[in-house]
Amino acid sequence: MLTRFADDVVSHWSRFSAEVVSLSLLYQESQQQLAKRLGRAQPTINRRLVAARWPLIRDYLEYMQKALGGVSA
């Protein structure tokens, strides 16, 4: 059930939201740092993360990592 929810959310991401989420996972930087990396304004990064429903997906990933016993990808 949870995986279907996450799949539904992720499958509707724009390429811009996917890019920001990907970099957020890869570098674990602040929105301001991601904005610098991408040559964008911080509010733009925030909008893309909100559109991606990033807080929910981040919580899902943390939950699944704990549920699977700390297995990393």
Which helices and strands appear, and what pairs or packs with what?
Layout: H1 2-10, H2 15-27, H3 31-38, H4 42-51, H5 54-67
- Overall 3D form: globular
Query: How many helix segments?
Result: 5
Low-confidence stretches: none
Q: Tell me the series of helices and strands, N- to C-terminal.
A: HHHHH
Gyration radius, to the nearest Å?
13 Å
Helix content: over 70%
Instruction: Provide the β-strand percentage band.
Output: under 5%
Q: How would you classify the helix and strand content by structural class? A: mainly alpha
Can you give the mean pLDDT? 91
Distance between the termini: 20 Å
- Count of individual beta strands: 0
Major sheet summary line? none
Q: Assembly state here?
A: single chain
Structure characterization notes:
- By secondary structure, the protein is mainly alpha-helical.
- 74% of the residues lie in helices and 0% in strands.
- It is built from five helices and no strands.
- Helix 2 (15-27) crosses helix 4.
- The longest helix is centred in the C-terminal third of the chain and has 14 residues, at 54-67.
- The model has no long low-confidence stretch (mean pLDDT 91).
Task: Note the main attributes of this structure.
globular; mainly alpha; 5 helices; 73 residues
